[in-house]
Amino acid sequence: MKLARLIYANSLFCLLAALLVGCGQGTGGGSGAGGGTGSSSSGSNSGGEIKVGEFASLTGKEATFGISSHEGTLLAVEEINAAGGILGKQVKLITEDTQSKPGESATVVNKLIARDSVIAVLGEVASSRSMEAAPICQKNKIPMISPSSTNPKVTESGDYVFRVCFIDPFQGTVMANFATSTLKAKKVAIFTDAKSDYSKGLAKFFKEKYLANGGTISSELDYNGGDKDFKAQLTTIRGGSPDAVFVPGYYTDVALICIQAKQLGLNVPLLGGDGWESEKLTEIGKDSVEGHYFSTHYHPEVGTEISKKFLENYKKRFNGKIPDALAANGYDSMLMLADGIKRAGGTDSAKLRDALAATKDLTLVTGVITINQQRDADKSAVILQIKNGGYKFLESIKP
Q1: Of 7, 38, 240, 316, which residue is the least packed, with the fewest Cβ within 10 Å?
Q2: Picking from 1-10, 88-97, 125-134, 360-369, which range would have the lowest pLDDT averaged per residue?
Q3: Residue 151 CB burial class (10 angstroms; 0-12, 13-18, ≥19)
Q4: What does the alpha-carbon distance between residue 7 and residue 97 come to, in Å, rounded to a whole number?
Q5: How many helices, marked H, and strands, marked E, lie in the chain?
Q6: CA–CA gap between residue 304 and residue 325 (Å, rounded)
Q7: Are 190 and 209 in contact (CB under 8 A)?
Q8: pTM, rounded to two decimals
Q9: What is the average pLDDT score of the chain?
Q10: DSSP letters along 75-108, please?
């Protein structure tokens, strides 16, 4: 057992040593003048540790998202520390649960900054909750990296707010082109969660590109996240005889929508975004979700060297569990932060902000990323189809 642990620790050290050297591909420099009014961190995490805050939906209706993202983040921290830390310091991850509730992000992020004196914040998966926290991080000049929030408004809070995922204009475009070119769908219905910024944003960008492609929208209807009965809206959608239905929601609602669509005889492809990706989707939806499609950030079959090592190490760490895109994005958010700290030469908030803004051609698990002027990641998306209770990789699409 001890020998096995030693071999594993050595393999982690080799991986992180190579990774952190590779992370140095980003360019230094950058500009940007804060803009907040709070006190700036001086990189004063004393002693031998660097405190990093994380806020995630570890409980509540989007818990699978938060747990996956946290596991990926935790794995990255453990590997970094096993490889000697960052600039000789160990990373201390301090995690808070948002409970998937509005209002909790602001509460816990204020705690992380004021009580724990973290030098950066990682989170959240849900766009609405990231948008709560972003102004707080900006005000206090604490760099924030969202692993998976795709609404464009997330990084509009200021120059201390970043993300490691692609954004909805790209994701919506990818799925609109997929509907037009691959599915040959001439008429599509759109079914949106009226309570979700993520859903409304993704629906908007899908519609714009689909119409530009020459398609027709047969109907546009709303629901409220957490609803249980969608039959009235689905009956209206069925009446428009669409070739496909775009449902940019989260997995629990989507699974119920798929079940009720099938019960009503609405037998056309349903399409969505990364909010679909959870084991709960197939667990709840069973055969009703078979054959439908969604875009996301990662699939184990992508097969790059770094993604292969991530898959292997994640399975070892979490009892054989296969990582999803949320886990991969969580892992990548920590690696991007580590790369920024290394290039900044410390944790001074202004220098770290500039280093993150200058990230270029950084090789991560979910692809090669460059941070653009809006502090969003330019990177590829993958399209998956639900097959035999799992997710079949179809294609990877570059920006």
Answers
A1: 7
A2: 1-10
A3: buried
A4: 34
A5: 12, 15
A6: 15
A7: no
A8: 0.78
A9: 89
A10: HHHHHHHHTT-BTTBEEEEEEEE-TT-TTHHHHH
